[in-house]
């Protein structure tokens, strides 16, 4: 039988095309149309059963009706050379009794025996590359963005407003830091001046006390009285 056709079922499409992207599952579907006047049982097989999930993989198609079959390919870790796939699918179909249901289907129904017609339709698998950028191109774009920022030139893929707003934010932060430093410097200078002033006042007060004490001592020995001063030293009396 040629691919895509059988005496019991019409199968579309004639090949299974899976969008291929590393580390991602992908699915495609096929339609099985019963073009006869009696019930038809089908079974879907593949050369690589661990790689694909078929739902449903067996069933009964009523006369003149269509059954949709979904085939899911597991995520791939490596891409085959030139995206060429050697996997194939086989759709087997046989005449079934009227009123037959899925639970009535057995593997023996598809055994080839003399006088029994078992149609088989082979479908090949093809991979269709997706249009999403590869990780290498994304890394390249990120690298060019970083280099352009280091050189002071914004990347053309980013809006200018982003760079203007970030620059303005940096200027505001710099202005705030400068203002804070200036304020702290002024407070420090004020504290230093206050400290120097206190030191001068202490030195002046100490000098004044020393002068007063000397005047009191001289007055006591010379008999000169200083009514306006109070002597802080006690002179022993002479006998």
From TrEMBL:
Gene3D superfamilies xref list: Immunoglobulins
Pfam families: Motile_Sperm (PF00635)
PROSITE patterns hit by this protein: MSP
Biased composition (Polar residues): 146-164
Domain MSP, residue spans: 8-128
Region of interest (Disordered), ranges: 132-179
PANTHER family tied to this protein: OS08G0155100 PROTEIN (PTHR10809:SF150), VESICLE-ASSOCIATED MEMBRANE PROTEIN-ASSOCIATED PROTEIN (PTHR10809)
Protein name from the UniProt record: MSP domain-containing protein
Organism field: Triticum urartu
Organism taxonomic ancestry: Eukaryota, Viridiplantae, Streptophyta, Embryophyta, Tracheophyta
């Amino acid at each position: 039988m040629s691919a895509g056709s059988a005496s019991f079922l019409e199968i579309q499409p004639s090949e299974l095309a899976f969008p291929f992207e590393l580390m991602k599952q992908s699915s495609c579907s096929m339609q099985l149309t019963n073009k006869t006047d009696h019930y038809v049982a089908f079974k879907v097989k593949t050369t690589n059963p661990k790689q694909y999930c078929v739902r449903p993989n067996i069933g009964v198609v009523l006369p003149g009706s269509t059954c949709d079959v979904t085939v899911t390919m597991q995520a791939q870790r490596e891409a085959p050379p030139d995206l060429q796939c050697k996997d194939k699918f086989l759709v087997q179909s046989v005449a079934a009794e009227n009123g037959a249901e899925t639970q009535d289907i057995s593997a023996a129904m598809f055994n080839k025996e003399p006088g029994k017609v078992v149609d088989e339709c082979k479908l090949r698998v093809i991979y269709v590359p997706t249009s999403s950028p590869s990780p290498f191109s994304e890394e390249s774009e990120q690298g060019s963005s970083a280099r352009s920022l280091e050189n002071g030139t914004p990347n053309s893929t980013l809006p200018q407003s982003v760079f203007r707003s970030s620059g303005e934010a940096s200027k505001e932060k710099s202005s705030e830091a400068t203002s804070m430093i200036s304020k702290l410097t002024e407070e420090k200078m004020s504290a230093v001046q206050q400290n120097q002033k206190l030191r001068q006042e202490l030195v002046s007060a100490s000098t004044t006390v020393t002068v007063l004490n000397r005047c009191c001592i001289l007055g006591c020995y010379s008999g000169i009285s200083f009514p306006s001063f109070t002597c802080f030293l006690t002179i022993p009396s002479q006998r």
